[in-house]
């Protein structure tokens, strides 16, 4: 089962700051702002807006009102990263842009053997994660991959030569 989209809210006064944070941080994962609604909401994604940030009016949002003293929202959003390097870059850029550390990049074997993630808390208290479940380039390594490709090409070449001689 896949998640289609996720939305979070931020106080209207912090909306622009929150958008800038997500534009900078999510760009490390290839996400772009794809859609904006009247400067009240913005959708980010690759091909479609899968992650939304909305400006909330606290008088209409009981959850947001209760968060005024406690900045941790309890929301958790995990974004797919194409590589472990992208996870590392996500974490680095998030901290530069004001996020707080909630788990440095690294393996999380309690989830599964190849789970590599990083966690940060954004300005609104959301627990944001970038995760790579398996980076085959790191597992195999470029030298090993090049060696396997070369050997395969040589074997195929020999077989073709034998076929036509």
TL;DR?
With 165 residues, the protein is α/β, with parallel strands linked by helices. It is built from five helices and eight strands, in the order E-H-E-E-E-H-E-H-E-E-E-H-H.
Q: How would you explain this protein's 3D organization?
A:
The radius of gyration is 21 Å and the shape is elongated. Strand 3 (41-45) and strand 4 form a beta hairpin. It has two domains: 6-134, 2,3-Dihydroxybiphenyl 1,2-Dioxygenase, domain 1, CATH 3.10.180; 141-165. The strands form two sheets. Strands 1-4-3-2 form a four-stranded mixed sheet, covered by helices on one side. Strands 5-8-7-6 form a four-stranded mixed sheet, covered by helices on one side. It has helices spanning 15-27, 62-66, 84-96, 136-140, 142-163, and strands at residues 6-11, 32-37, 41-45, 49-56, 76-80, 100-107, 116-121, 127-132. The chain has five helices and eight strands; from the N terminus they run E-H-E-E-E-H-E-H-E-E-E-H-H. InterPro entries: Glyas_Bleomycin-R_OHBP_Dase (IPR029068), Glyas_Fos-R_dOase_dom (IPR004360), VOC_core (IPR037523). It comes from Didymodactylos carnosus.
